[in-house]
Amino acid sequence: MLGYDWPRLHAALNDLPAALLLVAVLFDLAAAILNRPPLRTVGFWALVTGAVGGALAVISGLQAEEHIAHGEAVHRVMETHEELALITLGVFAVLALWRIVRDRRMGGTERMAALVASLGGVGLLLATAAYGGKLVFEHAAGIPTEVLQAEIHERSEGHHHSGAEGEGEGEAEEHEHEAPAGTGASADSTAPAGHTHAPGTPPHKD
């Protein structure tokens, strides 16, 4: 599939629909506040396009679920993410159909109801995204087990190249600081023990 398995395809299809749906609500909100119908038109097309893209994202996500190795903890988060995604898609799909059928004939009360529903949809969209992020960043969902094991092993060994450079710099710096101290100690060892002479003091016998 053009080098994409289902998890990667789902990740690729997620961002644009979410952005379009958010933009749609922002334009509708701006149109209501500023009373600018052209802004509402932009919001309408962003809503319709975002709903179609959201359907593709959900379909790919349902397929990705069957191709991801996971345990019980990941499964619970995945189920919540799936439920939120389906509810979010349902809300925006109904809003898109509502606008397609009624947009030109909506009164002020009906348009305000649609706007309130779309704001609720944004809340669901953000919750869906939060659980999707939790799957990836807290549970490494979608990363093959062998790849994850190799990465864990590599991280446990550290980045030796940077460490060597750091150690070299530290040793050089340490030598630079130690050299003057050593020189001073050698010079002092030739002086009589017990007291020192101020600079310019003429020689004298103790």
Description:
This protein has a single domain, classed as Four Helix Bundle (Hemerythrin (Met), subunit A). It has 206 residues and is mainly α. Helices cover 79% and strands 0% of the residues. Residues 182-193 have low confidence and may be disordered. The protein is built from six helices and no strands.
Can I get a quick summary?
The protein has 206 residues and is an all-alpha fold. It has helices spanning 6-34, 37-65, 72-102, 108-137, 145-157, 160-190.
CATH architecture: Up-down Bundle
Portion of residues within helices: over 70%
Count structural domains: 1
Structural class assignment: mainly alpha
Q: Give the ordered list of helices and strands.
A: HHHHHH
What is Rg?
A: 33 Å
Q: Give the low-confidence spans.
A: 182-193
CATH topology: Four Helix Bundle (Hemerythrin (Met), subunit A)
How far apart the termini lie comes to 95 Å
Overview features:
206 residues, mainly alpha, Four Helix Bundle (Hemerythrin (Met), subunit A), 6 helices, 79% helix, 0% strand
List the helices and strands and how they pair.
Layout: H1 6-34, H2 37-65, H3 72-102, H4 108-137, H5 145-157, H6 160-190
Helix pairs in contact: 1-2, 1-4, 2-3, 3-4
